[in-house]
Amino acid sequence: MAAVKKFLDYEGLTQLVTKLNEKFAPVQALQFKGTVATISALPTVANVTAGSVYNVTTGGDTTADFVEGAGEKLQDGENVVAVNVGTDLTPQMKWDTLGGVFDITDRLQFGTTMPSTDLTNGRTFLYLGDTTYTYDAVTPVGTENPSEEGWYEYDGSAYILTDDTEVQSGITYYKKNEQYVTGTTYVYSTDTSSWVAKSAAGEQMVAITTAEIDALFA
Description:
Elements: E1 4-7, H1 10-23, E2 31-36, E3 52-56, E4 60-61, E5 73-74, E6 79-84, E7 93-97, E8 109-111, E9 125-127, E10 135-137, H2 146-149, E11 152-154, E12 159-161, E13 174-176, E14 184-189, E15 194-197, E16 204-207, H3 210-216
Parallel strand pairs: 1-16, 2-3, 8-9
Antiparallel strand pairs: 3-6, 4-5, 6-7, 9-14, 10-13, 11-12, 14-15
């Protein structure tokens, strides 16, 4: 069975930030206060300001001081935040977990130039490859400066930046879209001292889905 490593792509990271903002909107601002070894080493929650975040190195069972209640599992390396579950007049502080954390030791590294050696310390490398673009025809209104707009003309074999300063009759202009890239995932082989493309049967790198992120906050 192929091993699977997961990473947060841009869409997933955006989704995660959105979820955190939704969950902790009443907190106003999160402030990282430091790292503690265990749950028992956390400061007394009643004396902590709302929004204070602590990282817990070694997880364990939560206590009654947690929003989740006692007996739930806090994973190693998770963060907890102090929240007021009472009112402004009668505050009641509790610890709340900031959702799951992802192991960044297997984070995806990428670039448009393949490293010559194992610069990623054994981690996976995504080669973005040659950049490709799409070009869409534009409909000028007659007052634009095509050169300043950065429009292109097609000469039958390639798209070339135009030097027209005024819209010319009979000329079709094109706008260059954002670049699109398709990547190939490689892993460095110490046996051959070279980068080897991952196959369908080998170790795979997949993006964390939005459904998995939603489940963290269920």
